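Researcher: Can you fold this with G3I in place?
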Amino acid sequence: MKVRSFIAYILVMLTIVWAIATTSTAAPPVPPRPESPTESLRSLAAKRDFFIGGAVQPQLLQNDSTYREVFAREFNILIPENHTKFWRLHPERDRYDFSQADAIVQFANEHNIKVMGHALVWFHALPRWVVEGNFSREELMEILHDHIQTVVGHYRGQIYAWDVVNEPVEANGSFRETIWYKTIGPEYLDLALRWTREADPDTLLYINDYAEGLNSKSQSFYNLAKDLRQRGAPLDAVGFQTHLGFLSADNSEEVAENMKRYAELGLDVMITEMDVPIDKFSGTPEEQLEAQAKMYRDFLKICLDASNCNTLVMWGFTDRHSWLTGFTGSKDPLIFDKSYQPKPAYHAMWEELKGTD
Ligand code: G3I
């Protein structure tokens, strides 16, 4: 009996020694994902002076307590997805409606969340009275001046950054032929920036476009920003929309290169509308989720690593509500699923923000 127990004992010990030896020569184990992180994205971001956020819709903030609570828990910056656009705020020439945007700003103030305004000047989301008004150059300048003065003045001191001109350039590199460009001329950008600065001297001013990678469109967006700076226009930053499902570069190295040249101009870069539809990737559903997570991690990393990027905003935050669902039918582009559970993309961003401390 004794001999048999001794042999059994030796065998067990050998097995343990073998297990230790083989484990120590194998690759280091991948740390487990934090399944229930005790820290939120916003608390990790705050430690690095970083802003992480999403676009929001006021009716969801009002009617969906989970939407509201998850947002307030996880994010420290927001953009109204639609309710600071021209047609929402200024539906008639002599009538402004701040009710919905005010509700968003109030929510943000209650939860110590910064607000970015989007977009004072855009070719889209304009009311009919502007589009069909047949206004002269002087009239349209007066309308734009009144709009900026009233809107920016209304929120003076409460908006962290204003998207002053959204999508000013075309894919082929020319100015987008908007009503503003055609009626006022290219100086509509300088005027809009100047009027915004006058109405709120302390807010950051940026122009915003899908011009993230290195191509003819991003070259003309860069040239425009450079010209504006050289002419002394009050421009502080550019926004990279970063809708990675279409129209955008998804090569994060190119985007990092692009960020760097803005730093040389003294301009910050903000990622303003990031989303990554899952059907962009092939493979099993798990592989698609991992590929999506990698994309979010890579873009967060290039922003964290850049000297001039401290803001990443997604175009929403839960797959329950995304503009893409209605627009292209693309699927599940955000970091929380439809039940507000964090996806691998959330965990990837969490780990990236956590860093090594
Ligand atoms: O809420 C109204 C509803 O009352 C009305 O009956 C209905 C009829 O058209 O429209 C509803 O509003 C729609 C709104 O989304 C809210 O869902 C607008 O038609 C529709 O045009 C609007 O689309 C928005 C789009 O910009 C145009 O403004 C999307 O939600 C919004 O996600 C999208 O966001 C843009 C950024 O501003 C700029 N960059 C690209 C990005 C994605 O397209």
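Model: Folded with G3I in place. The pocket of G3I is lined by residues 81-82, 85, 124-125, 166, 241, 273, 323 (CB under 6 Å).
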